[in-house]
Amino acid sequence: MDDQTPRPPSRRTVLRTTAGAAGAGLGIAATGGRTAQAAEGSARAPEATAVPKRRGATMAGVPFERRSTVRIALVGLGNRGAGMIGNFLALPWVRVVAVCDPVRGKAERASAAVVAAGQPAPAVYTNGEDDYENLCTRTDVDFVYVATPWDTHFAIARSAMLNGKHVGVECPAAMELADLWELVDLSEQTRRHCMQLENCCYGRNEMRVLRMAHAGRFGELLHGAGAYNHDLRGLLFDPKYYEGPWRRLWHTRLRGDLYPNHGFGPVASYMDVNRGDRVVSISSFGTPALGLAEYRAAHMPSGDPSWKETYIESDRTISMVRTAKGRLIRLEHDVSTPHPYSRINSLGGTRGVFEDYPARIYLEPDHKDDVWGDFSAYAAEFDHWLWKEHANPPGGHGGMDYIMVYRLMQCLQLGLPPDFDVYDAATWTAPLPLSHASIKADGAAQEIPDFTRGAWQNARPGVDSAKPA
Question: What pLDDT digit, counting tens, does each position of 415-443 carry?
């Protein structure tokens, strides 16, 4: 273990000191009530709420412990989890030592994939929904990868850190603001990293725009936009795709942006959020919720259990996020209506703008006469070293999944700080509960907490990393 990295305290010690952590957070009810009053007056941003007292030193910039072999455990082996195993197995310094899923067949298929890759058979945990707790007590696991239904992410991440494991969870990190605060506190107390595995930050276009932004090609940054506009109606009603209707049921429980991370993460990286700027407020508006009901009427038989559901989540949620430097970030979410896939992925500044889907760019002095330029012309100079080193990466989502896994496992092996940390996980997920609160408060601005407790003012590396020597 690196001597400069504090050893994690015992699980018993952390449990004693975090018993009231959830109460110190900011819940939807408290936030919504305060800003609903603001809606009756001016449109100014909400007043800052007191930040809970720090319970441990910051994790910003803290490196992993150097290790020659990275030992990982996978929890959740459905569509996403099973699809990611190959990316881990492709790395010769990574060992999959344990797999966990309450559906035995999924765990056994994952175990077979590990053996087929030439590794020893992993331990298999299939004894109910909570067997991950037994997995997390293992002494031969360095990193726990979590790809389970959303409402379980917090509990599994919490268990992993309390048992001395670094952990990465698929989107979103948690469903409630208080839980995001507890993840921050636990990461700081246990000295374990807790990361949002935001693969879109590692897209080739996103990483090229990031490097161009940092090189000043867009001038002073002013605005950006990101989205998750993805027609999921067929999958949401497909009993074979998701393990039960868990994802569709969130549309009966929450209004707002249920999946902000894919759009928010890359734009936050462009603007150095938590690394020189921070997001301070969000205002959200939603359309009526009609799309899922119309799809159900057209495609589902009358006796299907979905007919008992009432959808409240707005078909399209549009949010405006404001930063401390006055920049604006527009977020959109729509999985309930016909729409070609788009994450928007836009960035604008005083010298020009980039827009994706399709990729196009307009920069001064390179372009003129209001004619879009060729974004590929900037590849040679500004493609990230990861994409130059892995020009045709394997895996899904155009290779960004592999790039994310490769870089994370590289940081674990070499003892480097991760490209993003628990503060990014909390920040990128915060629009989920806060957009719900804002819509309920007629669009009134909701404060986005400073999860870094002031450390956002310090510049530090992020996804725009230097290639290790």
Answer: 999 999 999 999 999 999 999 999 999 99
Calpha distance 182→168 (Å, rounded)? 15
Mapping DSSP to helix (H, G, I), strand (E, B) and coil, where does residue 200 land? helix
Quick one: DSSP state of residue 101? -
Q: Alpha-carbon distance 436 to 17, whole Å?
A: 30
**Of all residues in the chain, what percent carry a pLDDT higher than 90?**
85
Contact, 272 vs 283, CB < 8 A? no
| Residues 49, 26 contacting (CB under 8 angstroms) | yes
So what's the pLDDT on residue 184? Answer: 98
Q: Quick one: which H or E segment has residue 269?
A: helix 261-270
pLDDT band at 327 (very low <50, low <70, confident <90, very high): very high
User: Among the residues of 271-421, which ranges form H helices?
Assistant: 291-299, 379-382, 385-389, 400-414
Q: How far is CA 289 from CA 117, 245, 286, 295, 314, in A?
A: 46, 18, 8, 12, 5
Structure confidence by residue, pLDDT tens digits, 19-44: 443 333 333 333 333 333 333 333 34
How far is Cα 165 from Cα 72, in angstroms, rounded to an integer?
A: 10
Contact, 375 vs 366, CB < 8 A?
A: no
Residue 81 CA: distances (Å) to CA of 86, 106, 134, 164, 338: 10, 10, 19, 22, 27
**Phi-psi bin for 266: left (phi > 0), alpha (psi -120 to 50), beta?**
alpha
Tokens of 257: 């942006």
Question: 3-class SS at 334?
Answer: strand
Question: Is 163:135 a contact under the CB 8 Å cutoff?
Answer: no
Query: Among all chains, which residue has been given the structure tokens 């490196």?
Result: 63
Q: Helix/strand/coil (H, E, C) string of 133-184? A: HHHHCCCCCCEEEECCCHHHHHHHHHHHHHCCCEEEECCCCCCCHHHHHHHH
The encoded tokens of residue 112 equal 């077979």
